[in-house]
Amino acid sequence: MAAIIPAHRARVTKLVRSHGSFVVDQVTIDRLYGGLRGMTVLVSEISKVDPQYGIRLRGYTIQEVLDLLPKAPGTEYPLAGGLYYLLLMGEMPTLEDALMVENEWKARSHVPDYVFNVLKSLPADTHPMTMFSQAILSMQHESVFARRYNEDLQKVDYWEAALEDSLNLTAKLPTIAAFIYNLRYRDGQFISPDPNLDWSANFGHMIGKGKDSDYLELCRLFFVLHSDHEGANVSAHTAHLVGSTLSDIYYSCSAGINGLAGPLHGLANQKCLRWLLSVRESFESFPTRDQLEKFASDTLNAGKVIPGYGHAVLRTVDPRFTAQLKFADKYLPQDELFKLVKLVYEVVPDVLQKTGKVKNPWPNVDAINGTLQYHYGVKEFEFYTVLFGVGRIMGITANNVWARALGLPIERPVSLTTGNLEELTAGISSQI
Ligand SMILES: CC(=O)SCCNC(=O)CCNC(=O)[C@H](O)C(C)(C)COP(=O)(O)OP(=O)(O)OC[C@H]1O[C@@H](n2cnc3c(N)ncnc32)[C@H](O)[C@@H]1OP(=O)(O)O
Ligand SMILES: O=C([O-])CC(=O)C(=O)O
């Protein structure tokens, strides 16, 4: 990174000097009250969501990422270490590059005991996302960035300390996630990481599924797919905002995970599986199209959303959904819940379209996540968003390192009151 950062800084400086007053977007009253949705307000070097094609990680589509990233010998899905290299460096890694990151993670993977003690001290029915966020936050005093900032850290070197923190934190995520799973659902059994397994597969191994090679492949797919979704989704943006105050990676990631825990964001995968099971439980046998259509309409009429459908940016089927659909077509084509996912995919977009208000009636990644986990015996819905979070922290931390490398300032826009807006628009003829 030290070799590529200076040239990138020069690009940004030139862009800002030459075109600093170029208007990228306009703030309207609609958008102020509409959650700023659709407004371009942030920069991220790592990825971009195209409404029609979906996410591109460093310019690569999901299919290209899956095809081109290096794999461990004898496996089908990529090494997460390769993905992290791609996110940080912006270029497709070799197998050696990917293994370099994997080895770096192995060397840094030890989780201090006090983290486990913090988790054990929480009420037994604490939501796994709360546990995950607390575990990350509890490690804040390990921050290299925070310590060096209080010593002699210069702005030009912020990124190096942020990278140290990022590698330290990401290295520990599979162990922390597995510990939470085992504490909540497997009587606290502890399985040490297997030094011969890669980062993603080690999670599967540590929750007792090390012999299920198909599940280990799913882990590899899952974490890569969930890593990043441009800089403005709630989890990434929250982490960026917090990081912009020079709060370190631990504070930033814990905050981002709190945003991911909402049902309109990452928690939708938990909600989606609950919804699918309630469909299944409502009928004696597999539902017909008509029955499903009615069930979906009833959900909408009850004032609820259909989880796993719709998106703030995407206007097409989420390619992360498609990638998992392909996985399931290969590994679990006969699974009844998966067949239901497919039927929902055929039926629900029309139902949503008929409302006349849903901008994107297509499935997002959450429409299938839980079904795959459920198939392999990870049946505890509340845990699913932790898995999402493990992946997402790769993107959040890569963004943070680059934000520090580019010296991005504190994010602090300006807010107005409704009264201020009424004053601003007084005397202008109404659009109604
Ligand atoms: C990884 C992720 O975070 S992907 C998203 C995961 N979340 C979900 O799957 C939850 C279900 N989906 C939703 O709630 C929404 O589609 C969101 C939050 C993802 C996007 O929200 P928005 O940008 O507001 O979507 P949109 O502009 O299409 O919303 C217009 C209307 O359609 C409704 N709508 C959108 N999607 C759905 C849905 N799946 N089911 C029912 N209604 C929906 C909205 O609630 C809104 O209704 P309102 O005007 O009465 O408030
Ligand atoms: O982009 C978004 O707003 C939500 C999403 O799909 C993600 O963060 O993965």
Can you give a write-up of this model?
Pathway: Carbohydrate metabolism; tricarboxylic acid cycle. It is an enzyme of class 2 (transferase). The protein is built from 20 helices and three strands. The chain has helices at residues 5-19, 29-33, 62-68, 80-89, 95-107, 113-121, 128-138, 144-150, 158-185, 199-209, 213-225, 234-243, 249-260, 268-282, 289-301, 319-331, 336-354, 366-375, 384-405, 418-425, and strands at residues 47-50, 54-57, 60-61. The chain has a three-stranded antiparallel β-sheet with strand order 1-2-3.
Main beta sheet strand tally, sense and closure: 3 strands, antiparallel
Summing up helix and strand content along with how strands pair, one would put the structural category as mainly alpha
- Rounded to the nearest angstrom, the distance between the terminal CA atoms is 54 Å
Q: Give the oligomer, counting copies of the same chain as homo and different chains as hetero.
A: single chain
Radius of gyration: 22 Å
CATH class of the domain at 105-262 and 389-405: Mainly Alpha
Q: What is the residue-averaged pLDDT?
A: 97
- Beta content: under 5%
Q: Could you say which small molecules are bound to this protein?
A: acetyl coenzyme *A, oxaloacetate ion
CATH architecture of the domain at 105-262 and 389-405: Orthogonal Bundle
InterPro entries: Citrate_synth-like_lrg_a-sub (IPR016142), Citrate_synth-like_sm_a-sub (IPR016143), Citrate_synthase (IPR002020), Citrate_synthase_AS (IPR019810), Citrate_synthase_sf (IPR036969)
Protein name: citrate synthase (unknown stereospecificity)
Pathway: Carbohydrate metabolism; tricarboxylic acid cycle
Keywords: Acyltransferase, Transferase
